[in-house]
Write a structure and sequence with these properties.
CATH superfamily: Metal-dependent hydrolases
Largest sheet: 8 strands, parallel
Distance between the termini: 26 Å
Bound molecules: zinc ion
Strand order of the largest sheet: 1-2-3-4-5-6-10-11
Number of helices: 21
CATH topology: TIM Barrel
Number of strands: 11
CATH class: Alpha Beta
Low-confidence stretches: none
Length: 446
Amino acid sequence: MQRCDLHRHLYGSVDPAWWLAHIAGQTVDLSAAEQTYFLRYQRHAGLSELRARQRRGDAQAGSDFARILADAHGASGFEAFQARHDLITWSSALADPQLLRRPSARAAAEIPALVAHVAERGRGEALALMELRVMLPALLRPAVESWLWRLISDACLKESQPAGRPQVRAVASLPRSRASAHWPILRDCLLAGEADGIVAVDFCHREEGQDPRDLLAFAAELHRFNAEHPRLALALLVHVGESFERLGFESALRRIHQVQFQLQPHRLGHACAAGLPLGYLRRQPRQRREAGAEWQRSRDWIASAAEQGFAAESARRLLNAPASPLPSGSVCHDYDQQRLEDVARLAAWLRQELAKAGAIIEVCPSSNRAILGLAALDEHPLLQFLDSHINCLIGSDDPALFATSLPQEAALMAPLLGDTQANALIERREWASEILSGRAAARSPG
Ligand SMILES: [Zn+2]
């Protein structure tokens, strides 16, 4: 058995009690995290109080923190998730202002300790391999950024040594808006042989408001780098279609298509919009707003989809659907029954295209359920993906935020898929970044 978690974020993987103990003695400024949490949930997370209780030796503090992290208070959507995730990242060494200027002793201690802790948790889940995504702060000096990538890479390689531990690899999550500016720093670490533990580049965090075309130049550059340096090749991973609260449904689908066919990633993160059943779409607010430019791009895309086999009648109706202009430059869509049925048809066409292209979708059952606000698991996009014969694997995303583990993610879907299929989805070693990027083959003797 080769159980692998190929979609997990380093900081979202901590055991909450471990994290609370870790930050209890640190000087941390929690005001930004507390404020975001309060704005989202209209209540205080109380992390300062929890730290004080932890310092007093209150054994309940850790489990109370775990509850706060995992409790969305019935809210769905990406921002509700992010407000809880910020409680970890903004209390981490990466949020320490000192790091903006120079390597910090705190980061030098935290990252190896965190990677060791997460690797130990992975051992408890019987993982053979885990790929851990890490996003660095946006405004670091290049020398600090380079130092951090080397630190993360070394920590992962070191944790992969002891027998019985999973192989641990890092995935560098770059900022969507400035990928080309950050890439040379990582590239130079790789070329110097100092980032062997980093096996992929990913784009995560907020996807709305960013145009997938912003990544075109970077993606072309990465594919070129891989061709020139196969032994250092990185997989390209992109979170897309995970959140689409400020998009029309057509635009949410178009962006998945754009990412797959223009950027040519090795795996897609989530792509949920492509797998939602009609029942789910019907429960969403009938009126949706998006930027006028998004809708214009989607109209062009629907027209080209019709030339590539999407039902002409549905395309015609979608293109003629009312989109009322608003003074802000946005448009307001009205989704009646007919339009939702046409959207569902467009999603089915997209799934067909993804299957034909051999796309691989990373599905994270608990995370997707919470962020989408699914009424029941039988609405999960994974079911439609599998029915459409798309390659899928299961990852755990942020176990601390969803109170889960990789085996639990498989168990969650087992009643719908059967044990054999659910377990197979957490054993996709052949889709590990090092294999998909060609790095493993380039390094194998002979
Ligand atoms: Zn993710």
